[in-house]
Amino acid sequence: MEKKILAGTFIIALIIAGCSGKMENTNYPGNPEPLLQNAYTKLPLGSVKPEGWLKAQLEAQADGLTGHVDDFWPDLVNSAWRGGEGEAWERGPYFLDGLVPLAYLLDDARLKDKVKEWIEPILTSSTDTGWYGPAKNKDRWPLAVANKVLMQYYEATGDSRALEVVTKYFRYLHDTPPDWPDKEWRGVRAMENAVTGYWLYRQLKEPWILEVIRSIQDNSSDWTAYYENFPWDSAASAEKKIPLNWGPDGLTAHVVNNAMAIKYPGLWYQQSGDKRFRKAVFDGIDKYDLNHGQAGGRFSGDEHLSGRSPDRGTELCAVVEYMYSLEELYSIFGDNRLADRLELLAYNALPGTTTPDMWAHQYDQQSNQVVVNGEKRAWSTNGNYSNIYGLMPNFACCLANMHQGWPKFVSSLWMASNDKGLIAAAYGPSTVKAKVGDGQIVEITEETNYPFDGTISFRFTSDEPVRFSFSMRIPGWADTAVITYKDKVIREKGGSTAKIFARWDPGEVITLELPMDIRAERRYNNSMSLLRGPLYFSLRIGKEYRSVKINYDNFSYMGSVDWEINPLTPWNYGLMVDRNNLKRGITVVAGEPGLYPFADRGDMIWSADSARYLPWEHDAPLILKTRGMQIPGWTLKDNSADIPPLSPVRPEGINEVIELVPYGSAKLRITEFPVIDLSQVMDEIR
What we know:
single chain; 686 residues; alpha+beta; eight-stranded mixed β-sheet; seven-stranded antiparallel β-sheet; 23 helices; 28 strands
């Protein structure tokens, strides 16, 4: 049968024209009045489950640090949050903020037993005043994280005690004076409480909860004004005026605070309705990119904001917190640019800063990272070991907080739309089971190797045909996406949302084809980064792992280790590609993501069966082959790759074939490449 070619925007227009008044999803209620209605509603934890390579990634996390660190790291083994006499501040809640969703996404009995061991002491710690947690903790900041833990636990289990603890704590905040000083973490991060506050209001619909959030907004750090009058621009960075301290000014330049705070004006927008707060969010993201933007979707901060040069680092905590901020913001605004950015972080910056088996992590990652060791670097604030892949290579916050990245991303792949439908917000192999239409349950399995491949199939399972709207985000980088269903073909432009309202029969399939053309992005000093879909690509550098002992005990528990990684092949290559004709000079070699999706040949992988590390013997899922030329004058500076020489660069070497792999697969990498002046070597490459 000949397929009909339709314009997707025409279908969307028909849907909109047929609707009148406010749409409300009674299956997954959004914001009650007087809050503004959000674009989408996040589904309860457990509604989305990982499949395929993404499930393998979460299983690697469960077999790595997340599944074991509380068995041997004293700060968690003896944590006061689980009834011990040890650390009573943020590390227990940080860890649980990743452990809880991971346990229920994988339906892992061992991890769920761990969760129970932690949660029971927390649930029984709630006092008559509403305060809870370890008795020796007097600070509100860790409770802001613990609130999010209990929110997720309640969604996954329905344990009403978790809802009661959160409710009593918000009553405590309502009945006590504001305590959100700008010089303390609880003050600069105070609006983190609004995440749980608005969730609680959706559960209870009690006006006093909004009074609490208003009080926090009015009496804590003004991040909206910060984004409107951004003080730490590129000039401040170049002139070394960014305060590298822990006072009120320095806390506004702290990278993790910035990654958390970008959502705060958006959270308050729900209650204020003032477009000023929406504008502040997008202005803030633009200012981060302009002044501190890095390949992989992140912005720099090693520990404080530190400019755009690719030798600058970004703290792992900032990556996972930026991801969570974007997940919250996408549900509020539904702006596809937010989900585009989320995928960049999830598929580049997140795997790029952990080992493939997730037994080790960096504190700071670099776009151009050509050696990993404990030598002194030009970090803004951090210590010499910050780019070691290890247990605790700098401050211990990332060892506690890194665990939320993958699980919360999986939970945010799908969301409920206000018209009782579903949207595929971000892409990855998964299954969503949710209520649609008049309350019917549908299961949709997303079959794909995305982001390594652009073909995505959605297979519907239900007891009977179900009529509801099914939406798909079209990434902004996709020139044209092709959607095939019911013998029809829709073509959608990048940045749009394809919404199809139809009767979906059991077994029906929708196919989405996203173009995976190579793209070039202009970077620092007119350098170039190459992308395919949401993946950045980095030079494949021969590498040697060497276990080292640094300034703490890594306890030698199972796979716990600290790695130096040294280059075995040259790294100082410029690209010999034509920005205007990338297809001519680049070949794509596609494989399959394996048991460790972001591993590449030569990476060291912990084998629990043999109780030792073994080298990975498979190639990365994608390899780009192109031509490059060494640049003799481009060398190390302060033990990092010096800034790329200004492009175009005069050729001085020989024309060589080089290989690039996904950023997340490259533990040593060049991602921002100088570009060789092809006008001087055209005869050679013709």
